[in-house]
Fold each of these.
Amino acid sequence: MHWINDLPTYLSQINKILKPDSPFLAAMLGGDSLYELRTSLQLADLDRRGGVSTHVSPLADIRDIGGLLTRAGFKMLTVDVDDIIIEYPDTFALMMDLQAMGESNAALTRELNGLRKEVLLANEGIYRELHAEGKESIPATFRVIYMIGWTEGEGQAKPEPRGSGQVNLADVLGSGGTPGDERRR
């Protein structure tokens, strides 16, 4: 899903084709995925070429996903995130793995000739200095965003009206209802 150019329209179309009261479950890369590679490539570009070019495609942030699902008409949303950190021997192995997964840079503003050798070599050193933490391997973070949304349906649970609760939150949390309050019972 992270390759979809128009995510709001895509999610709206999914909502329209699902039966009423049906779940939509999805996972996609997003947020700070590959932030180590992004930062090191920017610094290497700046150092070797005097400017910055787009090398990693933009990704949706977890804060945006809930709003996109709501805008598409989904109800009872759940959005969660996992950071999966994979160790690589070097940036060249990481980039070869990304290319083998079909995760090449698809930005229209990318350089068509690819990365220059001096930028790649500088990237290796910068990445290792900033992120290796003294280890021989380098980490690559993949942020996976999980989402669940339900299409609207007749039998779907609805939230209770405001103020209809039977339990006082202050009683549950203790005196005054402030978490961490030292006057708790």
Amino acid sequence: MAWLSSGPSNAALVNNLKSHGLITSERVTQAMLGVDRAHYSPASPYEDSPQPIGHSATISAPHMHAAAAESLLPFLHPTARVLDVGSGSGYLTHVLANLVGPEGKVVGIDHIQPLVDLASTNMARSDSGKELLGSGKVKFVCGDGREGWKEGGPYDAIHVGAAAREEHKGLVEQLRSPGRLFIPVGEWNQHIWVVDKGEDGKVKREKQYGVRYVPLTDAPKR
């Protein structure tokens, strides 16, 4: 029902996602209602489809952001540390920050510096975003997200917003025990994989549904 979830406003979009069963928890509903997608998507922000944000990057469709938030929700506790790989325009980073408590930390990482700058600018467009940035609860950094960001780890939850050719061992290593990684994997035939690290450190991988994401790429050559 994703293609029927678009709306004329942020609230309508979120409520449509909920009514179509794409959002199932009240926490995710409120977190997404608290972030105006128009601050992060320059065109058609309330369409339930990917939109360009420049630099050959896109902001994912809202139903995929909802799916990621729902999947990671059990690990987004009040003191959670979260890594958002391929943070792009910063939208899901803001949603994830809404889902962790005041003691939690969320790092958004992108390898394109203008997108890192854009994410901070976008987040600062709202009072809640300014507070998140000013308090240090959210930080945007430039780096190769395929290697994670060790300085902020270990992480209770890691989201990857572009398709990886492989799982990337470094991301799993930076998961806390317990912790969860949500990652699209594949080139032409892509699927969401959910990787759980148990309290004993053992790793369990589950292949879920087919998707279509832009690829995780190398940083632009200087």
Amino acid sequence: MEGAIPRQYGADAVEIPGARRLLGSLEEAKVPWAIVTSGTRPLVTGWLEVMKLSHPRNLVVAEDVITGKPAPECYLLGKARLGLSAERARGEVLVIEDAPAGVQAGKAAGCKVLAVATSHKIGQLKGAGADWIVQDLRSITFMGLDETSGQVHIEIRNAVEE
């Protein structure tokens, strides 16, 4: 049923500015990335297809976890699917989130969190513990991948303050 929503309402969907460019850069450089969402698998794959966005090799959806956001379980599973141990990756994984519960989940999982103020107010995202807040993904630029360490370098511009 949820898989039909993107097909029915896809014409009304609005892409987050900068998302296509950022995902394209990560794909081109073969950077491992994941989508961790509170949505179901049919819903998220439906939206990715309708929007013609890259599909991640690693996907964590609502039915993959027992406890949803703000619990860290989903992001811990995402780290595991990326081949990262929970402790080794502490503070080395960047979560991009648009909701306070997701910000809290990312922080609880030991990640740095960049919040995108597209669906919630800046104060809500800041109160949830976001490390940085931007208006949309045009403020994020992939700068490169260190092949030796696996470290991804990004630039964050125009971070907002309340």
